[in-house]
Amino acid sequence: MQILGVPVNRVTMDEAVNCVEAFIADRRRPHLVVTANSEMVMRANEDPLLAHIMQRADLVVPDGIGVVWASRLLGEPLGSRVPGIELMHNLLSRSAERGWNVFLLGAEPGVAERAASNMQQAFPGLSIVGCRHGYFHRRDEEEIVAALQASSADILFLALGVPRQEKWAAAHLGRLNIPLAMGVGGSFNVWAGLERRAPQWMQKAGMEWLYRLLKQPARWRRMAVLPQFVLLVLWTKLQSAVSRSGT
Ligand code: UDP
Questions:
Q1: What is the mean pLDDT of the chain?
Q2: Is 166 in contact with 34 (CB distance < 8 Å)?
Q3: Distance separating alpha carbons of residues 47 and 56, to the nearest angstrom
Q4: Can you tell me the mean pLDDT for 62-71?
Q5: CB-ligand 1 contact for 188 (6 Å cutoff)
Protein backbone atom coordinates (compact mmCIF):
# COMPACT_ATOMS: atom_id res chain seq x y z
CA MET A 1 0.00 0.00 0.00
CA GLN A 2 0.95 3.66 -0.28
CA ILE A 3 1.31 5.98 2.69
CA LEU A 4 1.59 9.61 1.59
CA GLY A 5 2.97 8.37 -1.72
CA VAL A 6 5.50 5.99 -0.18
CA PRO A 7 5.06 2.26 -0.73
CA VAL A 8 4.98 -0.11 2.24
CA ASN A 9 4.60 -3.86 1.77
CA ARG A 10 1.93 -5.75 3.68
CA VAL A 11 4.12 -8.47 5.19
CA THR A 12 4.37 -10.26 8.50
CA MET A 13 7.74 -10.84 10.13
CA ASP A 14 7.83 -14.45 8.85
CA GLU A 15 6.98 -13.35 5.33
CA ALA A 16 9.70 -10.70 5.43
CA VAL A 17 12.31 -13.26 6.52
CA ASN A 18 11.15 -15.64 3.77
CA CYS A 19 11.31 -12.84 1.19
CA VAL A 20 14.91 -12.18 2.20
CA GLU A 21 15.69 -15.86 1.86
CA ALA A 22 14.33 -15.78 -1.70
CA PHE A 23 16.30 -12.59 -2.45
CA ILE A 24 19.53 -14.22 -1.30
CA ALA A 25 18.82 -17.31 -3.36
CA ASP A 26 18.29 -15.12 -6.44
CA ARG A 27 21.84 -14.11 -7.31
CA ARG A 28 20.91 -12.45 -10.61
CA ARG A 29 20.66 -9.02 -9.03
CA PRO A 30 21.06 -7.32 -5.65
CA HIS A 31 18.07 -6.53 -3.46
CA LEU A 32 17.38 -3.69 -1.07
CA VAL A 33 15.24 -3.93 2.07
CA VAL A 34 14.00 -0.67 3.60
CA THR A 35 12.45 -0.27 7.04
CA ALA A 36 9.87 2.51 6.91
CA ASN A 37 8.68 4.69 9.74
CA SER A 38 6.72 7.93 9.71
CA GLU A 39 9.86 10.06 9.95
CA MET A 40 11.19 8.38 6.83
CA VAL A 41 7.88 8.78 4.98
CA MET A 42 7.99 12.52 5.72
CA ARG A 43 11.60 12.69 4.62
CA ALA A 44 10.80 10.90 1.36
CA ASN A 45 8.13 13.52 0.71
CA GLU A 46 10.87 16.15 0.65
CA ASP A 47 13.68 14.11 -0.84
CA PRO A 48 12.92 12.82 -4.36
CA LEU A 49 15.98 10.53 -4.38
CA LEU A 50 14.93 8.80 -1.16
CA ALA A 51 11.34 8.52 -2.49
CA HIS A 52 12.67 6.97 -5.72
CA ILE A 53 14.83 4.50 -3.81
CA MET A 54 11.89 3.46 -1.63
CA GLN A 55 9.68 3.02 -4.69
CA ARG A 56 12.27 0.77 -6.30
CA ALA A 57 13.22 -1.16 -3.14
CA ASP A 58 12.50 -4.88 -3.21
CA LEU A 59 10.85 -4.86 0.20
CA VAL A 60 9.67 -1.99 2.41
CA VAL A 61 8.63 -3.25 5.84
CA PRO A 62 6.39 -1.33 8.28
CA ASP A 63 9.03 -0.60 10.92
CA GLY A 64 7.18 2.09 12.88
CA ILE A 65 3.82 2.24 14.65
CA GLY A 66 3.02 5.46 12.73
CA VAL A 67 2.83 3.71 9.36
CA VAL A 68 0.69 0.91 10.83
CA TRP A 69 -1.66 3.51 12.37
CA ALA A 70 -1.84 5.39 9.06
CA SER A 71 -2.60 2.19 7.12
CA ARG A 72 -5.51 1.42 9.46
CA LEU A 73 -6.91 4.90 9.18
CA LEU A 74 -6.61 4.83 5.41
CA GLY A 75 -8.61 1.59 5.31
CA GLU A 76 -5.82 -0.73 4.16
CA PRO A 77 -4.49 -2.12 7.45
CA LEU A 78 -0.92 -3.41 7.40
CA GLY A 79 -1.32 -5.91 10.24
CA SER A 80 1.43 -5.38 12.73
CA ARG A 81 4.87 -3.74 12.81
CA VAL A 82 7.92 -5.46 11.40
CA PRO A 83 10.58 -3.57 13.41
CA GLY A 84 13.87 -3.38 11.54
CA ILE A 85 15.86 -4.36 14.62
CA GLU A 86 13.78 -7.53 15.04
CA LEU A 87 13.99 -8.35 11.35
CA MET A 88 17.76 -7.99 11.63
CA HIS A 89 17.74 -10.30 14.68
CA ASN A 90 15.77 -12.95 12.75
CA LEU A 91 18.04 -12.59 9.72
CA LEU A 92 21.13 -13.07 11.88
CA SER A 93 19.56 -16.23 13.29
CA ARG A 94 18.73 -17.44 9.75
CA SER A 95 22.26 -16.51 8.62
CA ALA A 96 23.76 -18.77 11.29
CA GLU A 97 21.45 -21.62 10.18
CA ARG A 98 22.02 -21.19 6.46
CA GLY A 99 25.70 -20.23 6.55
CA TRP A 100 25.12 -16.79 5.04
CA ASN A 101 28.01 -14.34 5.41
CA VAL A 102 27.26 -10.99 7.03
CA PHE A 103 29.04 -7.64 6.67
CA LEU A 104 28.44 -4.77 9.11
CA LEU A 105 29.01 -1.25 7.77
CA GLY A 106 28.33 1.77 9.95
CA ALA A 107 28.18 3.35 13.41
CA GLU A 108 31.08 4.90 15.33
CA PRO A 109 34.55 3.30 15.15
CA GLY A 110 34.70 0.05 17.15
CA VAL A 111 30.91 -0.33 17.48
CA ALA A 112 30.41 -2.75 14.56
CA GLU A 113 33.17 -5.00 15.97
CA ARG A 114 31.54 -5.05 19.43
CA ALA A 115 28.15 -5.68 17.88
CA ALA A 116 29.65 -8.51 15.79
CA SER A 117 31.12 -10.22 18.81
CA ASN A 118 27.77 -10.06 20.66
CA MET A 119 25.96 -11.33 17.58
CA GLN A 120 28.32 -14.29 17.35
CA GLN A 121 27.70 -15.06 21.01
CA ALA A 122 23.95 -14.94 20.44
CA PHE A 123 24.13 -17.04 17.27
CA PRO A 124 27.01 -19.52 17.43
CA GLY A 125 28.40 -20.27 14.01
CA LEU A 126 27.36 -16.90 12.59
CA SER A 127 29.87 -15.83 9.95
CA ILE A 128 30.67 -12.10 10.03
CA VAL A 129 33.06 -11.44 7.20
CA GLY A 130 33.70 -7.76 7.76
CA CYS A 131 33.13 -4.73 9.97
CA ARG A 132 33.71 -1.12 9.07
CA HIS A 133 32.69 2.11 10.78
CA GLY A 134 30.40 4.62 9.13
CA TYR A 135 32.43 7.82 9.40
CA PHE A 136 34.31 7.65 6.12
CA HIS A 137 35.08 10.23 3.47
CA ARG A 138 34.16 10.05 -0.18
CA ARG A 139 37.78 9.33 -0.99
CA ASP A 140 37.60 6.12 1.11
CA GLU A 141 34.59 4.77 -0.75
CA GLU A 142 36.46 2.86 -3.46
CA GLU A 143 38.44 1.03 -0.81
CA ILE A 144 35.24 0.14 1.06
CA VAL A 145 33.60 -1.03 -2.16
CA ALA A 146 36.64 -3.21 -2.90
CA ALA A 147 36.51 -4.71 0.62
CA LEU A 148 32.81 -5.46 0.17
CA GLN A 149 33.37 -6.99 -3.27
CA ALA A 150 36.05 -9.28 -1.88
CA SER A 151 34.10 -10.21 1.24
CA SER A 152 31.75 -12.93 -0.14
CA ALA A 153 29.04 -11.36 1.99
CA ASP A 154 25.43 -12.44 1.45
CA ILE A 155 23.94 -9.70 3.61
CA LEU A 156 25.17 -6.14 4.09
CA PHE A 157 23.69 -4.35 7.09
CA LEU A 158 24.19 -0.59 6.87
CA ALA A 159 23.99 1.55 10.01
CA LEU A 160 24.63 4.99 8.50
CA GLY A 161 21.32 6.63 9.44
CA VAL A 162 18.44 7.59 7.11
CA PRO A 163 18.76 8.55 4.27
CA ARG A 164 22.52 8.01 3.95
CA GLN A 165 22.31 4.23 4.36
CA GLU A 166 19.61 3.86 1.68
CA LYS A 167 21.40 6.23 -0.70
CA TRP A 168 24.74 4.55 -0.18
CA ALA A 169 23.22 1.12 -0.80
CA ALA A 170 21.36 2.31 -3.91
CA ALA A 171 24.50 3.93 -5.32
CA HIS A 172 26.86 0.99 -4.79
CA LEU A 173 24.85 -2.20 -4.50
CA GLY A 174 24.97 -2.87 -8.25
CA ARG A 175 28.70 -3.61 -8.11
CA LEU A 176 29.18 -5.22 -4.71
CA ASN A 177 28.29 -8.84 -5.60
CA ILE A 178 26.16 -8.93 -2.45
CA PRO A 179 22.60 -10.19 -2.95
CA LEU A 180 21.01 -8.28 -0.07
CA ALA A 181 21.42 -4.94 1.71
CA MET A 182 19.33 -3.46 4.48
CA GLY A 183 19.57 -0.17 6.39
CA VAL A 184 19.35 -0.71 10.15
CA GLY A 185 19.87 2.77 11.67
CA GLY A 186 20.97 2.61 15.30
CA SER A 187 20.78 -1.21 15.61
CA PHE A 188 24.57 -1.75 15.87
CA ASN A 189 24.54 0.52 18.94
CA VAL A 190 21.95 -1.74 20.55
CA TRP A 191 23.87 -4.89 19.63
CA ALA A 192 27.08 -3.34 21.00
CA GLY A 193 25.30 -2.63 24.31
CA LEU A 194 25.58 1.17 23.94
CA GLU A 195 21.83 1.69 23.72
CA ARG A 196 18.85 -0.26 24.97
CA ARG A 197 15.56 -0.91 23.29
CA ALA A 198 12.41 0.37 24.98
CA PRO A 199 10.92 -1.93 27.63
CA GLN A 200 8.46 -4.52 26.30
CA TRP A 201 5.41 -2.70 27.65
CA MET A 202 6.39 0.47 25.76
CA GLN A 203 7.00 -1.53 22.58
CA LYS A 204 3.59 -3.18 22.96
CA ALA A 205 1.91 0.16 23.60
CA GLY A 206 3.45 1.56 20.37
CA MET A 207 5.58 4.00 22.35
CA GLU A 208 9.09 2.95 21.33
CA TRP A 209 9.52 6.30 19.55
CA LEU A 210 8.73 8.11 22.83
CA TYR A 211 11.33 6.05 24.69
CA ARG A 212 13.96 6.96 22.10
CA LEU A 213 12.99 10.62 22.37
CA LEU A 214 13.25 10.53 26.19
CA LYS A 215 16.64 8.80 26.01
CA GLN A 216 17.97 11.07 23.28
CA PRO A 217 16.19 14.42 23.58
CA ALA A 218 18.25 15.71 20.64
CA ARG A 219 15.97 13.59 18.44
CA TRP A 220 13.12 16.12 18.91
CA ARG A 221 14.25 18.01 15.82
CA ARG A 222 13.86 14.91 13.67
CA MET A 223 10.63 13.97 15.38
CA ALA A 224 9.11 17.41 14.98
CA VAL A 225 7.71 16.15 11.65
CA LEU A 226 5.52 13.57 13.38
CA PRO A 227 2.55 15.86 14.15
CA GLN A 228 2.73 16.93 10.50
CA PHE A 229 2.63 13.26 9.48
CA VAL A 230 -0.52 12.73 11.58
CA LEU A 231 -2.19 15.81 10.07
CA LEU A 232 -1.29 14.80 6.51
CA VAL A 233 -2.68 11.29 7.02
CA LEU A 234 -5.90 12.72 8.51
CA TRP A 235 -6.10 15.13 5.57
CA THR A 236 -5.67 12.27 3.07
CA LYS A 237 -8.41 10.32 4.85
CA LEU A 238 -10.73 13.33 4.77
CA GLN A 239 -10.07 13.92 1.09
CA SER A 240 -10.86 10.33 0.19
CA ALA A 241 -14.03 10.39 2.36
CA VAL A 242 -15.19 13.59 0.63
CA SER A 243 -14.43 12.26 -2.85
CA ARG A 244 -16.30 9.00 -2.03
CA SER A 245 -19.35 10.89 -0.76
CA GLY A 246 -19.42 12.85 -4.04
CA THR A 247 -19.64 9.70 -6.21
N1 UDP B 1 26.14 7.01 11.45
C2 UDP B 1 27.24 6.66 10.69
N3 UDP B 1 27.78 7.57 9.83
C4 UDP B 1 27.25 8.81 9.68
C5 UDP B 1 26.09 9.18 10.43
C6 UDP B 1 25.56 8.24 11.31
O7 UDP B 1 27.74 5.55 10.80
O8 UDP B 1 27.78 9.58 8.87
C9 UDP B 1 25.57 6.03 12.38
C10 UDP B 1 25.44 6.51 13.80
O11 UDP B 1 26.66 6.34 14.50
C12 UDP B 1 24.34 5.58 14.31
C13 UDP B 1 23.50 5.30 13.07
O14 UDP B 1 24.27 5.75 11.96
O15 UDP B 1 24.92 4.36 14.76
C16 UDP B 1 22.16 6.05 13.02
O17 UDP B 1 21.44 5.79 14.14
P18 UDP B 1 20.03 6.49 14.42
O19 UDP B 1 19.68 6.14 15.82
O20 UDP B 1 20.05 7.92 14.02
O21 UDP B 1 19.10 5.73 13.38
P22 UDP B 1 17.58 5.29 13.49
O23 UDP B 1 17.60 3.98 14.22
O24 UDP B 1 16.83 6.38 14.19
O25 UDP B 1 17.19 5.15 12.04
A1: 96
A2: yes
A3: 14
A4: 96
A5: yes
Give this prediction's pTM.
Answer: 0.96
C-alpha of residue 159 to centroid of ligand 1, in Å: 6
For 170-188, how does the pLDDT look when each residue is reduced to its tens digit (9 = 90+)? 999 999 999 999 999 999 9
Task: Tell me how many helices (H) and strands (E) the chain has.
Answer: 13, 8
Evaluate: CB of 47 within 6 angstroms of ligand 1: no
pLDDT in tens, 96-138: 999 999 999 999 999 999 999 999 999 999 999 999 999 999 9
Q: Is omega for the bond preceding 179 within 30 degrees of 0, making it cis? A: no
- Count of alpha carbons within 13 Å of 147, Cβ hemisphere only? 15
Residue nearest to atom 16 of ligand 1 (CA): 161
The Å distance, Cα 9 to ligand 1 centre, comes to: 24
Ligand 1 pocket mutation pick from 105, 160, 165 by most atoms within 8 angstroms of CB: 160
Asked if residue 108 has its Cβ within 6 Å of ligand 1, the reply is: yes
**Interval 202-242: pLDDT, tens:** 999 999 999 999 999 999 888 889 999 999 999 999 998 89
Q: Which residues of 111-131 are buried (b: 16+ CB within 10 A; e: fewer)?
A: bbbbbbeebbeebeebebbbb
Hey, which of 189, 210, 213, 219 would you mutate to test ligand 1's pocket, going by the most ligand atoms within 8 Å of its Cβ? 189
Q: Under 8 Å CB-to-CB from 180, ≥6 apart: which residues?
A: 20, 23, 24, 30, 31, 32, 33, 154, 155, 156
173 Cα to the center of ligand 1, angstroms: 19
Mean pLDDT, residues 14-20: 98
